[in-house]
Structures are given as structure tokens and as C-alpha cells.
Amino acid sequence: MDIIAANHLTKSYRQYRRFPGLIGSVRSLFTRQFTEETAVNDISFTIGEGEAVGYLGPNGAGKSTMIKMMTGILVPTAGDIRVLGAVPHEARKTNARQIGVVFGQRSQLWWDLPVTDSFDLHKTIYQIPETKFKQNLQMCMELLSIHEFVEKPVRQLSLGQRMRVEIAMALLHEPRILFLDEPTIGLDVMAKDQIRHFLRMVNRERKVTILLTTHDMKDIEEICPRMIVVNKGTLVYDGSVEELRARLGNERRVVIDFREDPGPLDMPGITLLQEEGLRKTYLVSRSESTVFELVSRIAARYPVEDASIESADIESVIRRLYRQLADEESIGRQIG
Ligand SMILES: Nc1ncnc2c1ncn2[C@@H]1O[C@H](COP(=O)(O)OP(=O)(O)OP(=O)(O)O)[C@@H](O)[C@H]1O
Questions:
Q1: Which of 12, 35, 43, 225 has the fewest C-beta atoms lying within 10 Å of its C-beta?
Q2: pLDDT tens for residues 289-319?
Q3: Does the Cβ of 228 fall within 6 Å of ligand 1?
């Protein structure tokens, strides 16, 4: 069953022009000149119950705008969005009970109160029955290790601690859908791991539908079998990582240990990705030649100690997609 459906969804922001100075501000009041920016442009997709979907795109692609429309904070300019069969901005109260929301940059917690008080307030606001509340709280506290700081006021928590509390709070009323905007941004590796494992469990075992925005490909790898990629407001990809890898020509990563630094390699179809001393990682396009052939050509010309070939990780697949999009745009500009 589809529980989220976007149909030709569009959101434009109007930016009114401001004229400088005092006279200018009076002028601004009367002329009302504006420019329009389309943050979400004619996007359609459906998400079924129990799915976990990553929503990615470069900065300014329109991800937060999309989440805000799904949660009913923003009203679409055109098209249609339905969440649990309802129009989000018309059903904010009823939907709130079935939706959990975590915005990485903004808190839902009570800053001056101890964490436990925020949980209790949430219980009252959402009228969560005592036993259900206790069970859910217990589960979240344990799996997210919240016990250690549950008596502290929220303002004293580290970012990683606060984020774990935000996620726990969003789940106490047992929502069917969980929206997360950048849930792991700015966290250390351990905190990221803990949150990813937890979200994976919530999705796989509790069957909560998850939609998250992220810039971190590991979030996608560990939580989301499906990803939707947007760029400048439009949808550019909807499918699995494997399908995207296949579509982009299946690039490979080649890690080479050199005996001495070879400098830039004079070889077509190979891009330097990473350097750690004499160990260098390259991205190799398979269309240029077979990877083995290429590695042996490198070994014939440069002092190679060892080499290994890996499939392109998701990060390089996405990097390649973004590069392709940027190339298409610059070609479009030249033609236009
Ligand atoms: N309130 C607003 N008024 C005017 N323009 C806005 C507003 N909010 C967002 N925009 C513009 O809409 C576009 C999409 O913004 P949005 O925040 O949805 O992108 P994003 O994909 O979440 O970006 P990021 O990855 O940087 O968080 C941007 O160009 C942004 O400047």
C-alpha cells in the first residue's frame, strides 16, 4: 500500500525585491517586484508502507522543501502530495499522531528541562497510554544508550546525545512514518553507527516507513534499499544503488601501491580519487578498456608494488552522477 504519494508536486518561493535605503524600503512596499525560485519542480513518486528511502541531492536541490511539504509545514504551489491518504497541510493534527519528525538542525526538545521531562511532556501532548509509553521509552533508552544523560538538561547535551534523544522522542507515539532531515550530520563515527543500526531496526522490525535526507552515503548504504536523487528541484533518479551503479557504466576503483611517487599518470579513462602516501586510489571507467589491461599498462610504465581492484562504492557512484548532471547543465547553457 502506498502511504506517501507525490504527484507532479511543485513548490516555488517568491523572493520580493528590496530596494536599499529608507526611500527604497517605502518603494519596496509599493512596487512588490519579485523573483520566483522553483525549489521542487514537478516531482512524482510513491512510497509503500515499510519502505526505507533515502532522499539525496546536492545543496539547494530541494530536499528540505520536500520534507516540509510532506509534514504539512509548507503548502505546495502546484501538484498534489498525500501522506497516509490525506493532504498533509490540511491534516496536520491527525497526521502528527502517525508521523514522527526529526530535523537535524532544529530541535523539538525543551531546552532547559531534563531529557526525562521532554519525554513526559511528549507523552501528555500525544496522549500516549502509560504501558505503551514505558515500553517504547525503555526500548529507545536501551538501544540508543540514553540512560547516561537522561537527567541532564537538554542544553548540556552533546550533538550526538541530543540527536539520539530527538530520534527516541519522534518514536514514542509509535508513528507509522518517520521523516528525518540529515539525522547524522556533524556526528562522530560511533554516534552515526548507533543511529544507523537503530533506524535500520525500527524499519525492518517495527515496520516503520522511513524517509530521510542525507549527504552521507553510508546512511543510504546501511538504512535505505531505495534512493531518490534530486537536482535543482527535479527528480533525476529513483531506484536502488545497484541499478544506479549499472546505469553509470559500473566504474571500478583501483588501489595501487607505488614503490615511488609516479606523479600524475598519463593515461586516459582514469581519475585520481585519493592519495595516502604512495598508496593511490583511482576511478577507472570500464568503457576505456578492461580494468586488468589498464592496470598492467600502468605497471609496465610506472613502479608498481601492488594493486587491487574494487567495485565503485556508492559515494563514487553518486559523485559520478552529480558530475554527469553538472556536465549536462553546462552543455545546456552553451547550447541555450
Ligand atoms: N523560505 C525560502 N524562501 C526562498 N527560497 C528558499 C526558501 N527555502 C529554500 N529556498 C530555496 O529553495 C532551494 C531549495 O532549498 P532546500 O532547503 O529545499 O534545499 P536542500 O536540498 O534541503 O539543501 P541543503 O542540502 O543545502 O540543505 C534553494 O535554492 C533555497 O535557496
A1: 35
A2: 578 888 888 999 999 999 988 766 677 778 8
A3: no
Taking residues 178-192, report their average pLDDT: 91
Torsion of CA 153, 159, 161, 166, to 10 degrees: 80
**Residue tagged 519522534 (cell numbers):** 170
Count Cβ atoms within 10 A of the Cβ of residue 59 and give its class: 0-12 exposed, 13-18 middle, 19 or more buried: exposed
Q: Tell me the CA–centroid distance for residue 13 and ligand 1, in Å.
A: 9
ipTM score: 0.96
CB distance 54 to ligand 1 below 6 Å: no
Question: Rounded to whole angstroms, how far apart are CA atoms 200 and 228?
Answer: 18
CATH 3.40.50.300 in the chain is located at 2-6+48-239
- Start-to-end CA span in the chain (Å): 43
Q: Which of 14, 15, 63, 68 to mutate to test the pocket of ligand 1 (most atoms within 8 A of CB)?
A: 63
CB atoms within 10 A of CB 326: 12
Q: Which class would CATH give 2-6+48-239?
A: alpha beta
SS3 37: strand
Report the distance separating Cα 129 and Cα 131, nearest Å.
Answer: 6
Nearest CA residue ID for atom 27, ligand 1: 59
Q: Give the position of cell 512514518.
A: 177
Tell me the HSE value of 334 on the side-chain side, using a 13 A CA sphere: 6
Q: Flag whether pLDDT at 192 surpasses 60.
A: yes
Q: Which fold does the domain 249-335 belong to in CATH?
A: Alpha-Beta Plaits (3.30.70)
pLDDT in tens, 196-249: 999 999 999 999 999 999 888 889 989 999 999 999 899 999 998 878 877 776
Boundaries of CATH 3.30.70 in the chain?
Answer: 249-335
Instruction: Quote the pTM value.
Output: 0.80
